[in-house]
Specification:
This protein is of the alpha/beta class and about 290 residues long. The chain has nine helices and 14 strands. The strands form three sheets. Strands 6-7-8-3-9-10 form a six-stranded mixed beta sheet, with helices on both faces. Strand 9 and strand 10 form a beta hairpin. It starts with a strand and ends in a 10-residue tail after the last helix. The relative contact order is 0.15. Keywords: ATP-binding, Nucleotide-binding, Transport.
Length: about 290
């Protein structure tokens, strides 16, 4: 089984007359693609289009050459897909095992023994095997998120679409989730949305979404490097034309934009790169790739 080939070409999505996605291109096979953007940037909409929940208004999305606009192909895509929506709900009354077993039936894992083995396999993967008999209602928020991951990876999908999997989790749970996501990178094409630059750093490729468009596609290192020579610190208040600035704990100002002559340049981070890319003027701008 090989990771799915994912191809988006000039994807557009509108709600009423409002454009939410405009000319989105993306090509991936294997590895992790993190989609980074502010609240409302269109990440969930993009992921829902890839997961065949929403139909784009323009452009094409193909998965292994299959086009979700055709019903037979859409069914085939869904067989290859694992999807973790932002607001996944479980029946609180059922046990952890039963909740997954039910979803495994929906994923067409018909043989009872195979299904049981696969359910326990994914529970192992996410560290919830010893909770298999507990009601879902007794799980903590982080455990529920891991249960969500378990259902997403059930059936070994070759395309994994994860909408903010680490949202609201404490640092330990975030780390665990990142580990589970990272494990998939060799067997699936993984698309993960986040608004946190730290989480975006797990991507082999980071896609920055801002103002409905892709502003950057490339490695986390390249995103950080894109801010080289445009990140500096100073004691004085930032100049008025600075793109972004904030006061550090030591009282100095970290500034992004066009540095004044003699500025004290510092090594940029992925966050610096993101802030510069996302705040660049739209007119005449070409995405960096
Ligand atoms: N079904 C819908 N009908 C109308 N507008 C919608 C719908 N879904 C999303 N939108 C709008 O589209 C825009 C993008 O929303 P989306 O949820 O894709 O952003 P996001 O980047 O995932 O945000 P967040 O980080 O807050 O989850 C928002 O302005 C939102 O209000």
């Amino acid at each position: 089984m090989t990771a799915a080939h994912l191809h988006l070409h000039q994807v557009e999505k509108r709600f009423d007359s409002r454009t939410v996605l405009d000319g989105v291109d993306l090509l991936a096979q294997g590895g992790i693609v993190t989609v980074l953007g502010a609240n409302g940037a269109g990440k969930t909409t993009l992921l829902r289009c890839i997961a065949t929940i929403l139909e784009p208004d323009g452009g094409t999305i193909t998965i292994d050459g299959l086009d979700a606009r055709r019903e037979a192909e859409r069914i085939e895509i869904r067989r290859r897909l694992g999807y973790l929506p932002q607001d996944l709900g479980f029946n609180d009354g059922s046990t952890v095992f039963d909740a997954l077993d039910y979803l495994a039936v929906l994923k067409e894992i018909a043989d009872d023994r195979t299904r049981r083995r696969q359910v326990f396999d994914v529970l192992d993967r996410v560290g919830l095997r010893d909770r298999a008999g507990d009601p879902v209602a007794r799980l903590s928020g982080g455990m529920r998120r891991r249960l969500g991951m378990a259902q997403a990876i059930l059936g070994s999908p070759t395309l994994l679409v994860l909408d903010e999997p680490a949202a609201g989790l404490d640092p330990d749970e975030r780390m665990r989730l990142r580990e589970i996501v990272a494990e998939r990178r060799s067997v699936a094409t993984v698309v993960v949305s986040t608004h946190l630059t730290d989480d975006a750093a797990i991507g082999d490729v980071v896609v920055v979404l801002a103002d409905h468009r892709i502003r950057f596609t490339g490695s986390p290192t390249r995103l950080a490097e894109s801010a080289a020579g445009r990140t500096w610190v100073q004691d004085a208040l930032p100049p008025p034309d600075v793109r972004a600035s904030w006061r550090r704990a030591d009282g100095r100002h970290r500034c992004l934009g066009n540095p004044p002559p003699g500025a004290e340049l510092v090594a940029p981070t992925l966050e610096d790169g993101y802030l510069l890319v996302a705040s660049a003027p739209v007119d005449g701008m070409r995405p960096v790739s």
